[in-house]
Amino acid sequence: MPFLKTSGITKSFGPVKVLHGIDFTAEAGSVVALLGENGAGKSTFVKILAGDHDADGGEILIGGRRSRFGSVAGARAAGIRLISQEIADAGTMTVAENVVLGAWPRRLGVVSRKETHRRAAESLARLRAEIPLNRPVSRLRLGERQIVEIARALAGESRCLLFDEPTAALSDVEAGRLFELIAGLREAGVAIVYITHRLDEVFRIADRACVLRDGRISLDRPVAEVTTADLVEAMVGRAVAARRFVEPAGEHAQRAEAVLTLHEASGDNFAGVSLPAVPGTVVGLYGKIGSGVSEVAETLFGMRGLAAGELRLDGRAVRLRTPADAIRHGIGFLPPDRQGQAVLPGRSVAENLAAPSWRRLAGRGGLMTRARESRAYRRWHDALSVRSRDDPDQRIGTLSGGNQQKVLLARWLECGSRVLVLAEPTRGVDVGARQEIYQAIRRLAADGTAVVVASSDYEDIVAVADQAAVMVRGRVVAVLDGADVTIDRLTESAGGALSVR
Amino acid sequence: ATLAACGGGGEEPGTTTAGGGGARTSAPPPVAPAGVAKFEDAAPGSGDGLTIGFTQLNLSVGFPQDVQRSVEEQARKAGAKLITCDSKADAAVALDCAKQFKTQGVKGLITFQADANAAPRICEAGPPVPVLAVDIEQKPCQTTFVGAANEYAGQLVGYNVGLYFAQQNDCEYDAFVSLESKAVGQVNELRMGGIRKGFESVCGAVRNLRTLDTGPGGLSEPAQRLMTDTLTALPGAKHVIVVGINEDVIIGALAAARVQNRTDDLYLGVQNLNPKNCVIYTAPHWLGSVAYFPEKYGQLLVPNLIKAMKGEKLPAELLVPHEFVTKETVKQHYPAYAC
Amino acid sequence: MSDSPVSDSAVTPGPHAVAAGGPPATPEPSAGRLPALAKIPNSAALVVFLILEIVFFAANSPYFLNWDNATNILTAISITGVLAAGATLLLVSGQFDLSVGSGVGFVGLLLVELQPHLGTAQAVLVAVAGGVAIGLLNGFLVNVLGINALITTLGTLAIFRGLTLAVGEGQNIAVNGFDWAIARPFLDLPVPALVFVAVAVVFALIMSFTVYGREMYAIGANSNAARLVGIRVKRNLFLAFVISGLCMALAGLLNTSLIGSSSGTTGTGLELAAVTAVILGGTSLQGGTGGVFGTIIGLLIVGVLSNGLTLMNVDSSWQQVATGSLLILAVAFDRLRASLLSGLR
Amino acid sequence: MSDSPVSDSAVTPGPHAVAAGGPPATPEPSAGRLPALAKIPNSAALVVFLILEIVFFAANSPYFLNWDNATNILTAISITGVLAAGATLLLVSGQFDLSVGSGVGFVGLLLVELQPHLGTAQAVLVAVAGGVAIGLLNGFLVNVLGINALITTLGTLAIFRGLTLAVGEGQNIAVNGFDWAIARPFLDLPVPALVFVAVAVVFALIMSFTVYGREMYAIGANSNAARLVGIRVKRNLFLAFVISGLCMALAGLLNTSLIGSSSGTTGTGLELAAVTAVILGGTSLQGGTGGVFGTIIGLLIVGVLSNGLTLMNVDSSWQQVATGSLLILAVAFDRLRASLLSGLR
Ligand SMILES: Nc1ncnc2c1ncn2[C@@H]1O[C@H](COP(=O)(O)OP(=O)(O)OP(=O)(O)O)[C@@H](O)[C@H]1O
Ligand SMILES: Nc1ncnc2c1ncn2[C@@H]1O[C@H](COP(=O)(O)OP(=O)(O)OP(=O)(O)O)[C@@H](O)[C@H]1O
Ligand SMILES: [Mg+2]
Ligand SMILES: [Mg+2]
Q: Transmembrane region positions (chain A) (predicted)?
């Protein structure tokens, strides 16, 4: 008997029906990959399983017994744990406490600090993560927070783990460790549901693949019987494949002068880095998480100062004191942490998109109308295939993660920056949309924008970069050009081939 | 000594030189201003068909509450309709009250409102009807001022306290603690300044004055806290004069002394007298309280307002007969007193 | 560089195929399909509540429903209203200003103290400068020194109340020849009501239609993200505190002119009245939502209640009980609407 | 490809080439390198500030530094302190309770009104029940009906103040045979001070060492996360409001016994005093941080100041100015420490 079985689960948000009757099973000791486009309803479905949302109809059977949670506590009591897509941790509390959050070890009714630390250390050790136990999680980087979230799900008795895009913010090494852990859990008889947009991961860890499309299951087969193409087809209803969007270098790129250059720059977590952003080209900055890639990106945007070296704008040394400075100089930045650094929650999609362009959109009168924002939104809604109600007033929080990412990218497209620094531009974006984003990046370059893509996902680099710098522990260790920008060369330079992706 | 002071002519009080500290037991008692009125019940039926508007000072304090109940009772007796509005010691609210009375077409007003300088605007906003001002002047529209002679009442307290010290202790004392309420503004100044004036007329300039602000209207808890600290700063002091703007602050001061076991050291001169506040009257050195008789204000206000509404001319002032009441005399004024 | 599919890896369809590919895979309906109900603004429930209140008082007091009384209500809320407009702007960006009440007192004091010596125009200038100075001080402490706005403005609340009391010695001081606020230039509405309406309109426009207004919402929603889209967070907040200072100045002048005097306690408690109206009007303490329209409704709900109960001759203690209950009821009513609609959004 | 910075393609954009190499960067400090300074708890700056204050007053008043005066200070902060303990618990979970001041008045009124009829023990029971009832009401409105805590407790603040005034008719009502709070059973400390110390210890223990306490921090840090790990957010918050009600009851009994009477205005403004101490002590309005220790320091900073200035016979208006300035100064001092340390963490 499967550990968990659902039949006919339906769910609507207002007039929008998101799930149209989901029949799904998760067996103990097996990994099901749950796939689907952005907005397909994956997160909604696992949230229902975890008791976070209440389904409108259908039933959930746990071990054959009917249960209707509607409360997180109920689902947890049944041994179900969700590692949610958006990080949900207690920022002011320590790593150790976050790992045992909600399940504090107690002796005589008193929380035992020693035991808390022991359990936290144990859980983190299973992920082979080295994170200081006493640090408040708000001071960790995103990936580390994600690991703490996973460690929390491991602490205590769990019989079913629901992973919602756990690797989106993880480095390859960390992802590798997670996969080992998942394999171990599977051996131990845990039922695992795994949501991802990285199809290679499916073949690496999953036993079964299940695809959601338009709120229905469009494919449910053992992984051994399917190919990537099958999955993609089931997800988007047509064939899409990874490809390189870069032409051999054209005249344009060769002649252009760099607009923004890092010259022998050292700063937080990096040293001696030189990097040009040239109109018409896309420079990739590849490095595993923690390699200093994001610090370099942040430096380009004025979020960090330089300890040595300089930042040149149009050949002249400049000091960017704030992001506002950078924007004034025509630099745009898509930050890696969507919730923390980019989204304006509670505000409409149109406002979220128009934010850095407000002054321009307002024009000389200084008056900012909703209509202008809506027009800006409509310009990009279709271009980036944002899957939403197509209502500029919709709150951004009600969009799926991947679609939020598209709106945030569009924010900088609308802004029309000369230099665009994109950190992890496809984090959480589905296969189809990924290609759309790559295309948009190339189109942007073709229009003369200088683009820097700072990413820990080599697919981003391979797809769009004319030239790529590889960083390891704060230093640029390799520069690849043109046809050399391949998966193998990137991973090799970054410190050993990884077969993961 | 029985020190009731009602009449008596003589020179202006408080004008004596505030010099050394010598006792002047011969100093004349303060003179009651002219216009002291008699309390009388409203004639039944006299107010039939009349509507009276009453702007209150602040109903979260006992004194106005007593006034209100007395006015309500008298209005009932007279058969007049009474509409009340609590200004909560805020001139802006009093202004709103006046406007609402105008809207409701009242035919006579009783205004108990703290800000004398705001009175012109409040008068202007209200209906053009007879106005009785309670305790605080409401120029230019007041028909008659009714109520306390605040400064005189203060002087009575100060004079009698001074007299006590002159007779018992040759005007020797350790400190003069004045529990005030700055928030009440003018009335605070009149009452507490009056006390000082009266005291100085007997014992000369006040020494070691400690002014403590006890919050809006004078509250027990701040008085208690501040008095605790003040007593600490007066170690070993055996003669601490404590005068307060109302009974609440005296209760607070007594609570502070009680905790430090120094109730004996406080010599109390109190504004207002409510026979229920036994803590004060059973204190070892309650020198006396000046009575305002708020529970009888209605007997001045209602009958006279009705007269004015009917076109009778009233005197410019109808003053409450203040009395300095002591243990010996209290039963005369308050037969129900049982402390 | 064009979109042409030159590539070095296995490429199936061209990029155009991706962009144009297939029918849009959207389970979502178009905007038109949203029921009208869901489009009702957030403050609708409060408006309904206000109307119920008005109906109730109209039925219970013959004096309630007339123009005179309406002007009374408007005038009564006008001073709190001017402050509440500034408070709304601050609160949508996640900030507070509790010093407004003592600011009003301080401005009033400056005016009444200086007017006899400097003349009206100059005294007004200094008084306005006083209000702005409080705003500048708050802005400086919060944005430059980085002190929490609550502590800062609790601090300046105490400081300026203390100064007002110390300098004015607790006295009521009258002002002469400063009675512009009691004029009724238009529709029989007194100046304060007109000023309030004007201020409300200006703030509503600023908050809805200027970049600055948008930026304040963004800051309230996520100040970190706001910084990263180039918004000068501190500068904007600084300005908002100064604007709040201007509101104090305006409210202080209105109040002094309306009352004809000022004292040490003038303005006490206005900060709470203003914040109450703002929150009642639906602006959240966390920032990022709300607006001046809601605040006006909030002001009216409280103002109408207090007016109506006084007309009904309800004792002030019971008025307090009623006001407290109504505050809760109004928000409960709004919650009810929200939960009824939650299925629709 | 090696680490060589030589580009082998024609695309090399000259001097702007992406360059590799340079000295190896060793930016990450090891955990062991964190200086001891960074281990200082957050409240350290406030403690230093408090010490400076004590030194100042010790130098300026001969009466300041003695045990008697210390007991005065402790007694003076004890009633606010009991309320502040409850407020700390609520605030770490991101909630407020502004009704505590009128709760104290209401409890006091129940006691003094009922004691002559029911006897002391029964009256105390009813009074405590009254405080708990306020807590239950607040908890119900906030957690079951989902009304914002600020509005709810502003509402109950008004309701219970109004009830207290209406029932007590604004009179100061004395209570006899209820003077346990003036005893000094231990170390010459009066009962309120001892009660406050006990309450503070209990709250510190609850907040640091019980599951409930940790859950409250988690709720304040991120209530959504707390819910997702199975914490019964509403139940916990409900309980905290009830605890706050118990604190009102205790503070009300202490106050009545200490003063020997109760009146309609008893407890006015205590809510603000309590919240000020909590915030000054470093508990953030957003929740998730802070604690009772900080609150005690906050209470002492304000309490010592008021005591010291009174001993120095400073006029109360100037006391207000000094208190406001000190509040700001204390937090500025703490910010200074934070920014000095930020480089070290
Ligand atoms: N709280 C909400 N209110 C309204 N609509 C919502 C809400 N949450 C999700 N939706 C809508 O439900 C749909 C499914 O969202 P969901 O988050 O489940 O997608 P997903 O498959 O997880 O996508 P992604 O891969 O981008 O994370 C989307 O159209 C989204 O806009
Ligand atoms: N404010 C901080 N205080 C203490 N430690 C920090 C702080 N910020 C980052 N760290 C630690 O420094 C290490 C490096 O983090 P950092 O953010 O620099 O990584 P990164 O190179 O930017 O990674 P990514 O590319 O994923 O952004 C991590 O172990 C992190 O926990
Ligand atoms: Mg999702
Ligand atoms: Mg980083």
A: none
